[in-house]
From TrEMBL:
Purpose: Essential for recycling GMP and indirectly, cGMP.
Protein name listed in UniProt: Guanylate kinase
Enzyme class: transferase
Recorded catalytic activity of this chain's protein: GMP + ATP = GDP + ADP
Species of provenance: Ligilactobacillus equi DPC 6820
Length: 205
């Protein structure tokens, strides 16, 4: 059977807790998954590390990556570019690792087109008041940026129907458990086995 890894796309509005839940999953299952570090033109926040949280680049550098086919997907989100460098994701999948992308919905829909056998999970807040509170509590964005993020959140939640699963992030540990259950079940989906059998059947003919 094919040992290529699974691409796991975790989307959901900014501040819902994608990073927090993903870290909880990685802490429990340290070696099972890999995380794709995104590229962005946004300014680095205090405490962020280049190459760990993001690859922080200029607009020109980002546009060069787009032009040279270096991005699996990219989108503009609240005045900045964000995107997934293609090379690392491919390497990890070829090595049989399951790779997490933590990305907004426009980019996720591009991945859906390119990688139809990916797993698409939408992390959603218990309600919008709680989402706003999480953005405020995080303390990383000014009020006007929080308002823009909330505006975008409403549009993003309307895109939930394009995902395979929705998970409410009420309690971090519960959301992490649910996502792990989804991933376990996804490994046994018939569509993951068919290409190998079809190839073998083709070789027999
Ligand atoms: N279940 C939860 N209950 C309460 N607070 C939470 C929960 N999950 C995450 N948080 C808090 O909400 C804030 C936003 O979380 P986090 O940065 O993980 O969100 P995110 O979806 O990754 O955001 P972004 O997309 O902007 O990177 C953080 O301060 C985090 O500690
Ligand atoms: N399409 C993509 N969206 C991404 C990527 N990396 C992060 N993001 C999303 O952007 C917003 C804002 O992030 P923040 O770090 O400024 O709070 C959030 O929804 C992220 O999930 C990416 O590679 N592609």
């Amino acid at each position: 059977m094919s040992k290529r890894g699974m691409l796991i796309v975790l989307s959901g509005p900014s501040g819902v807790g994608k990073g927090t839940v993903r870290k909880a999953i990685f802490e429990q299952d340290n070696n099972k998954f890999d995380y794709s570090v995104s590229m962005t033109t946004r300014k680095m926040r205090p405490g962020e590390v280049d190459g760990k949280d993001y690859y922080f680049v200029s607009k020109e550098e980002f546009e060069h990556e787009i032009a040279t086919g270096g991005m699996l997907e990219y989108a503009q989100y609240v005045d900045n570019y964000y995107g997934t460098p293609l090379k690392y994701v491919n390497q990890m999948l070829d090595d049989g690792k399951d790779v997490f992308l933590e990305i907004e919905v426009k980019g996720a829909m591009q991945v859906r087109e390119k990688v139809p056998d990916g797993l698409f999970i939408f992390l959603t807040p218990p309600d919008l008041m709680e989402l706003r509170q999480r953005l405020v509590n995080r303390g990383t964005d000014d009020l006007d940026v929080i308002n823009m993020r909330m505006q975008t959140a409403v549009e993003e939640i309307e895109m939930m129907q394009n995902y395979d699963y929705a998970v409410v992030n009420d309690e971090v540990s519960e959301a992490a458990e649910k996502i792990k259950t989804i991933i376990r079940a996804e490994r046994w989906r018939v569509k993951r086995f068919l290409p190998d059998y079809k190839k073998q059947l083709g070789e027999l003919k």
